[in-house]
Amino acid sequence: MFGKGIYFADMVSKSANYCHTSQTDPVGLILLGEVALGNMFELKNASHITKLPKGKHSVKGLGKTAPDPISTASLDGADVPLGKGIPSGISNTSLMYNEYIVYDIAQVKLKYLLKLKFNYKTTLW
């Protein structure tokens, strides 16, 4: 969506889609990391970025849904969004969730690897 970069989200529901789990293989992995975003280039629509504008260090894709700021925890000095998403108030965006993209691996510090088992509810008709 935003070119060849390292993609992050502020809501696990966005990242969980990339685990590619299923009812028969419900285990997925998610990385949590600290990301030095610097001065972000904000966009409301996908744009294949090959070079950031001068003075910009990352891209923020502005989504319709964002973390509720009152549901944030501090973990080792980093803010971790928790809870259900709320409307972001961003209009005319094609993105459901916020996305953060950096193009230099030096901006990323991986902190945790989470192994998640997704609960697929089966329905009996």
TrEMBL record:
One of its GO terms (biological process) is double-strand break repair. PROSITE patterns: PARP_CATALYTIC (PS51059). Its EC number is 2.4.2.-. SUPFAM superfamilies: ADP-ribosylation. It comes from the Eukaryota. GO terms for cellular component: nucleolus. Keywords: ADP-ribosylation, DNA-binding, Glycosyltransferase, NAD, Transferase. Residues 1-125 form the PARP catalytic domain. This is Poly [ADP-ribose] polymerase.
